[in-house]
Amino acid sequence: MFDWKLDYYVYDTAMLKKIFLAQFFLLLFLNSVFAETIKKINVSGNERISKETIILFGEIDLNEDFSEHTLNKILKNLYNTNFFEDIKIDISNNILNVFVVENPIIQSIKIEGIKAKKLKDPIYEALKLKKNNSFNEYLMKKDRDLFLNILKSNGFYFAKVNIKKIENSNNTVSIIYNVDLGKRAKIRKIKFIGDKKYKNRKLYNVIVSEENKFWKFLSGRKLLNKERIDLDNRLLKNFYRNKGYYNVKIESSFAEYLEVGGFDLIFNINAGNKYFFNELNLVLPDDFDRKNFSKIEGTFAKLKGKHYSYNSIEKILDEVELIALNTQYESINASVKEIIVAENKLNFSIIIDEIKKQYVERINIIGNNITRETVLRNNLVLDEGDTFNNILYAKSINNLKSLNFFREVKSNVVEGSTPDHKIININIEEKPTGEISAGAGVGTSGGTIGFAIKENNFLGKGIQFSSSLDLTEETIRGSFNVTNPYFLGTDRMLFAGIQSSETDRLTNFGYKTTKTGFNIGSRFEYYEDFFILPRFSTYYESLKTSSTASSNLTKQKGTYFDMDFDYYIDYDKRNQKYQTSDGFRSRFNQSIPLVSDTNALLNGYEFNAWHEVTDDGMIGKFSFYGRAINSITGDDVRISERLYMPSRKLRGFERGKIGPVDNSDYVGGNYVSAMGIAATLPKIIPTVQNADFSIFLDAGNVWGVDYSSTVAESNTIRSSAGVGIDWHTPIGPLSFSLATPLTKASTDKTESFRFNLGTTF
Question: CA-CA distance, 437 to 441, in Å (whole number)?
């Protein structure tokens, strides 16, 4: 058994000893003489550091009375520079004599015993001692502790670090850290004990640490890590509190070392009683209009009698935040009061207080060497002179973090020139914002290869450039896009792009099309979580057909020019974008022809909703997908514009091989719709944390063409049922589905098994 513990030293004891001895002997001298005034300063022993610099850093003043205070000040100031190994001071005949022994300069720092650059570089960066800086024995020992801490956080709990200091000529030293990494501390087994209420497989899904399994050879989460265990504790506590266990305690989390197999990570949980909301109250100042807080009281009515949930409280506080954005209530403060009134009941109150208005006096931003300050200030929802609001302050900082330009964003609020004014200090650390990626995938419908180059902060203006090339069995597609989130210095986003593609479906569908186009558009948030994306697009298309294509398809051969206006309306209330467990997303889009050879009008709608069905973690999902395209002038819709069923919307059928058929060519339709229900199951294999198992029922159809008299189509609703696995492996996402068609048309092509594997490197 072991314990995570580091010793921290507040003071350099060697330096304190030197200061004490200097003070002791000098005070003996001072006690024997009257206080003298400094008329002259002599400095000796210095080689690299000038006399003037020593006087400046020591804050030594001529005509100053030399006293115990003066001595303390000079010694402290000079030792704090880290330039000197020893300092002696005396005064005689009004002459202050300062004798120094300079610390050597660090000529080089080497780390031996570590080959991996991704492990070595962070250590070099974290070390306090740097090349060409003054050497300090105390900092070298601190660096050793820091060194070991970084190694432990990467799973090398048994690592040993020996330090070798080599004294060179010219008062320089070389430091060599000799590292014996030892074996990595791997987690053999994760155990949950105590009054845990839930099965292990459910709790495995809550934490991020993983057991050491052979298929997790690239995962770092199988290694023992204190920060990760601390996060696991928080995740477990949040999970239980959201299930109603208000007083849950993670009594302990510890690792037990086994000579064979590594460590057992053990969480001791005391869930306690499950609590339910009893009385919910909103306390307002007497002069506040309760009508403006009616939404909160409506939420209270829905929560009464339900189990306690911290997420529910956060949603209420979010409503308070929205109210606080109203100028009438911008100077309010909300506090929460929770009282246990019975064995399993809890009274909950939100108390709203009016506070004195405070104003933003100044916003200081430092650390932006690349990113322009205007970009940063455009992402702040508070400005100098505005009424200070904690909610807007927090949102401003979150906006900066979400830019993904920075390794770290630190901030604090301090009092300004008067008590009712605030100064906001923001300190950022920038990081590289360019990306180069390549990817490949393979599946039952063929393979894919992709390349992409992206720059997210061009010239420090927040402008995004991206270029990509994707190749599949049928398609070659290239694009170049630019996005300016702050067009003309405003908070309006403007994007533009060029795309070119060639789709060869001569063998499977009887046609080949080449398309080149341009688009320009914008995106803005109309209100919270409600986005509108308008766009203009234009493209030129060349369409060819095979010798065996149907007459209806052949007559579409030629070139086309189209200009469209399209827009998306997106309402996104998902609790999280990845592995969603609650909420919904609703998207409507429409493409309106402006100048077009076919004048095709496209309407589309998609809706997805998620809900946690059981406490074990079963997630239910409902989905709807619909598209309709028609020519407003009565012309035939081009084959390249027609709609096909997306492969993930109707499993159990070959991609593009359902719907209308013309002379054995699957020509798509003017309408497509699909609906599905699915349930993501609790972890079937507890130790496989990155795999989601699901059961599903899909239904849908593709129908309607402009020349239906020569086309075979069926009004049969296609449907299928099956099971699926989505596995996030170290080499990329891997998905399987096994589906059985329940209903189908005679012309449909079925495909019971489908898989897809992709990676980015």
Answer: 14
Q: What percent of the chain has pLDDT over 70?
A: 86
pTM of the model: 0.57
* CA Rg value for the chain: 34
* Domain end point (choices 124, 149, 180): 180
CA dihedral 149, 150, 153, 154 (to 10 degrees): -140
Residues with Cβ within 8 Å of 697's Cβ and at least 6 positions away in sequence, in order, are 676, 677, 678, 719, 720, 721
With 0-12 / 13-18 / 19 or more C-beta atoms within 10 angstroms meaning exposed / middle / buried, residue 325 is: middle
Phi and psi angles of residue 422, each rounded to the nearest 5 degrees, phi first = -125, 145
How far apart CA 428 and CA 401 sit, in angstroms, is 9
In a domain, 435, yes or no: no
Of 8-12, 65-69, 176-180, least confident by mean pLDDT is 8-12
User: At residue 236, what are phi and psi to the nearest 5 degrees?
Assistant: -65, -45
| Residues ≥6 apart with Cβ < 8 Å to 259 | none
- Is residue 173 very low, low, confident or very high in pLDDT (cuts 50, 70, 90)? confident
Pairing state between β 463-472 and 446-458: antiparallel
- How far apart CA 208 and CA 228 sit, in angstroms, is 7
Please tell me the distance from the alpha carbon of residue 268 to that of residue 231, in angstroms, as a whole number: 15
Same domain, 332 and 453: no
Query: Is residue 492 located within the same domain as residue 364?
Result: no
**Under 8 Å between Cβ of 668 and 644:** yes
Number of independent structural domains in the chain: 7
Helix residue spans in 309-424 (DSSP H): 310-324, 373-378, 390-402
533 shares its domain with 497: yes
Q: Is 190 exposed, middle or buried (0-12, 13-18, 19+ CB in 10 A)?
A: buried
Give the model's confidence band at 18: pLDDT under 50 very low, under 70 low, under 90 confident, else very high. Answer: low
Copy the structure tokens of residue 560: 């086309």
**Domain that includes residue 56, residue range:** 13-102
